[in-house]
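task queued by scheduler; priority normal; single chain, no ligands, no partner chains; default sampling; output format set to structure tokens
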Amino acid sequence: MKNQGFDIVVAGKLALPDGRLVDGELGIKEGRIVAITDRDALAGSERIDAGGGLVLPGVVDAHVHTRSEPAEGLTRATTAAAAGGVTTIVDMPYDDPTPITNVGAFIQKTAAVDREAITDVALWATIAKTGGLDEIEELVSAGACGFKVSTFETHPVRFPSIPDGELYLAMQRIHAAGALIAFHAENDDIVRRLGARLVADGRTDASAHAEGRPPVTETEAVGRALELALATGARTHIVHATLQRSFTLVERARGDGADVTAETCLHYLLMDEGEMGRQGARVKINPPLRPASELEALWRLLAGGSIAYVTTDHVGWTRDRKEGLSIFDAKSGVPALELFLPLMFHEAVVKRGFSVGRLTQLLCENPARRLGLWPQKGGLALGADADLVILDPERTWRVDEAALHTPAGWSPYHEREVRSSVETVLLRGRRVFERGEVVGVPGGGRWVRPRSEKSPVAA
């Protein structure tokens, strides 16, 4: 006799947290996974059969900028997320015009999430350039997943470079509060001096961007962040690392006893610096795209476990912010939420032979663990939120930027062929995407508070 009383039963090839891919069923009740069994063991009010499809945990994208581009915002960004199987984003604090540096602004943003989001959203906070240290403990208590800081100054208020002395004092307090600090690691002075020289030489072409940000601008800043981590004990994370040496430095610091991790991004795994010649400012990103040899090194590091997880660093800049401008005036960053899972599945599983289990570690479990969202998010586990993606691993299609849900209206991956397709997405047991359409509504998503006790990242 079948077990009764579930709201929804989902059947298919389940990607479980231990890396196993099993033919089974999930029983969902009140938005959570309450049963994991063999096939044909459960009955419920509704049944979804994935057939030959995969049932994956919803993706957790730990690096998203929804409010850097005012034309995007939470609703539009999470619409794109839902279409791509990203059920939880962790939104960066560099909102335009005012960053999230105090508890009042943080609470206002949590309320906006509950009104506007289609998927679930957790939140980063940041600190002011100076004078903001007393906000740290209150922001941790309010539910920030961590503090994002930068050693490169994009804007003196919205996205400042934090002075070293302020960083040191902040990291002492962040460590005492048990929180995480994440670094955008680039050497501001070298970048500005090289950029000024290139401009003086009349260089405004796309390749000047990478020339003005050579590898040492990243690795020096990574090394500085790691030394501060060792000195203060603060749990530290390096965002959007692009170079093998950056990950080597992280591994050495871990060997010295630092609690440090690093991520890379989708674009560094799929595009090398040659794309600057082909696409120009559309693929301007900080740090820049690197040579093909570094791209291949990142894939080896992913296979070997040296990279904690992968993110998008999504920002939905409209075309006028990217095209027809000097490379030094164009905005940095690309939209990617909607394509994150299909492109990573295609490149990692289809082309490079990664297991489905390894992919879900990199996109779901590990970011959830590092940011304190596990086990609520990131895995098909008993008691977890029923955030699920049904993925067709065989369907082949071609990216058409005009057909995407992202409001940016363009994609650096336009015309790429992809094998794998997001078919259905559930958020806490409710459909938010089905048959090519986003069916979730603003207010259906929730702000997610991290657990106070953080889980380690799986190797």
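post-processing summary
- The chain has two domains: 3-55+383-394+417-438, 59-370.
- The CA atoms of residues 16 and 293 lie 33 Å apart.
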